[in-house]
Amino acid sequence: MPRIIGRSRYLRKQPEYRKCARHSGPLGPGPVNGNVMRDVIVVGGGPTGLMLAAELRLHGVDVLLLEREPEPTGQSRALGLHARSVEVMDQRGLLGRFLAHGERVRAGGFFAGLGTSWPEGLDTAHSYVLAIPQAVTERLLTEHAAGLGAEFRRGRTLVGLSQDADGVTVELADGTRDRARYLVGCDGGRSTVRKLLGVGFPGEPARTETLLGEVEVTASQEELASVVARVRRTQARFGTMPLGDGVYRVIVPAEGVAGDRSVPPGLEELKARLRAVAGTDFGVHSPRWLSRFGDATRLAERYRTGRVLLAGDAAHVHPPTGGQGLNLGVQDAFNLGWKLAAEVDGWAPEGLLDSYHAERRPVAAEVLENTRAQTLLLSAEPGTRSVRGLLAELMEFEEVNRYLIEKITAIGVRYDLGEGHPLLGRRLRDVALKRGRLYSLLHAGRGLLLDATGRLSAAGWEDRVDHVVDGSEELDVPAVLLRPDGHVVWAGEDPAELTGRLRSWFGAPAA
Ligand SMILES: Cc1cc2nc3c(=O)[nH]c(=O)nc-3n(C[C@H](O)[C@H](O)[C@H](O)COP(=O)(O)OP(=O)(O)OC[C@H]3O[C@@H](n4cnc5c(N)ncnc54)[C@H](O)[C@@H]3O)c2cc1C
Predict the structure, then answer these.
(1) Is the pLDDT of residue 213 over 60?
(2) What is the pLDDT of the chain when averaged over all its residues?
């Protein structure tokens, strides 16, 4: 008998749930679709779920993605990809597609809106922010995942789930059920999966709220620029940004904190707040999209509960300052994809899947810390404005500027893999090899032994690890072993040490 994890009180109040619950038993009435046991069900087709579905398909995993929205909304909360996410796209051969739809920006201001210049000497081949709307990122990732054979079902809302020793059964709002060996909740900050699991989400509730509107304006460019310059001297949570075709993104502090942020503001509320904060509403009209967001900061207590995992906003929420949430979710998926595929495939060494929580939760905790600091720096309090001024002066020092941008771009991330070579746990930037480039060797998502000595071997792991005899003048090391996500798990030249690392990251050698 499957163990029922439950349905939250929140779900029981939802009209969709009540409709299907009327005629459902504990696990709903419907048969499990076609009695098929899938490998993995991904819940949520945002950037995290899409990236994860693609990574799993790259390893031949049978993936079903369930998404509540019947069609893409076309709305873009995030407007950019940071360096590490651009690297991730490069590592999967997607760079050309993303560059074709984005614009490379090297301006400062990514830490609490401070710093006037982009730092020099960042350890990446992609030292820029790729300005690209979230809707475009989602479209490109959808094409990528679909091209690899992921199955999508739109207009499907998960309302119940249970797990047993062999798999996970999900119940959908339409009364049908599906079953898979594993399930990953990529269903956003209000994650139903997380709530059904009963995973704690400690942190702070929203204390401030900001209105966001994508609107047309009647004010001239000059008026807009001069008002923004004046107001931003005292109010950092206010601004406008041209999006093209006469549309502007406008953000302005809300009057209070709404009980339910899923209810968007009206145009009148946006206008009233603009008049209160800026003294003019710029004649905003014809809204494309109105929304509100808060500064709630929360982190899931655990990323894995048996056969169910959490990724992206489902596992962590924080204010959008610095533009990190989408990037963090895509990088969660990049860390989890190959590990879950290894588990499904049966070659995962002991503890590999649990290393997802061990590696990614501390990274999210750090992002939460930097957004807390940034949020404080945006306050209009006189004392905070003095600290802000001082930090702005410190950011004139190249090293300070670089240190903070390394945090925001995630290129400074180092997983704790114990003592050893300084590269251990870090990802490598793309470097030129004698023949080609490093990242082009990672497109298939396999492990890589990059061996400048020509004396090493990955025999027994050829089905999981490529052995390439080549080197780079930019890498001061005889050989490195990279995981499919490009992180270094060994560096050196000792064959016995290498065999140990191959076993601990890629399982037993083939017989
Ligand atoms: C104003 C604003 C600006 C931002 N700017 C940036 C930025 O510049 N850079 C950045 O990196 N991040 C930014 N973010 C954050 C970013 O938008 C999110 O972190 C990102 O969307 C998270 O992706 P996700 O896939 O984890 O979750 P989501 O994008 O929330 O996707 C979750 C998906 O799950 C679906 N779903 C939910 N429940 C169910 C269910 N029960 N069954 C089936 N499907 C379900 C939803 O329909 C949705 O499609 C910003 C956020 C805001 C509010």
Answers:
(1) yes
(2) 91
